[in-house]
């Protein structure tokens, strides 16, 4: 399974929704980077994604985007293959 990394904040409902969907799809470990606790990580996230909002989700080296992007990927049947999970 591909590694999953999420740039997040403590009180973000979209972050919680994205993590819940990933867990439902079999992801056991999610690396969470809390940008509300580390301004340098916020700057890094914005530099690598071009976005200011959370969550910003990476599966392996692929930037998926935010929660809506993750849901769309799942609905298109492309999330499990990206995760490396047999459908």
Task: Write up this protein.
By secondary structure, this protein is an alpha+beta fold. It has one domain (4-83): Glutaredoxin (3-Layer(aba) Sandwich), CATH 3.40.30. The chain has 4 helices and 4 strands. Strands 2-1-3-4 form a 4-stranded mixed beta sheet, with helices on both faces. A hairpin with a 2-residue loop joins strand 3 (56-59) and strand 4 (62-65). Helix 1 packs parallel to helix 3. It is globular. The two termini are 12 Å apart.
Tell me the quaternary state. Answer: single chain
**What proportion of the residues form beta strands (DSSP E)?**
15-25%
Count of spatially separate domains: 1
* Count of DSSP H/I helices: 4
Describe the SSE topology.
Blueprint: E1 4-8, H1 13-24, E2 30-34, H2 39-49, E3 56-59, E4 62-65, H3 67-75, H4 79-83
Parallel strand pairs: 1-2
Antiparallel strand pairs: 1-3, 3-4
Helix pairs in contact: 1-3
């Amino acid at each position: 399974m591909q590694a999953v990394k999420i740039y997040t904040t403590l009180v973000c409902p979209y972050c919680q929704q994205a993590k819940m969907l990933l867990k439902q799809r079999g992801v056991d470990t999610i690396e969470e980077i809390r940008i509300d606790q580390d301004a340098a990580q916020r700057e890094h996230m914005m530099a690598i994604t071009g976005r200011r909002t959370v969550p910003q989700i990476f599966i392996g080296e692929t930037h998926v985007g935010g929660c809506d992007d993750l849901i769309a990927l799942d609905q298109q049947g492309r999330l499990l293959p990206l995760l490396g999970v047999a459908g």
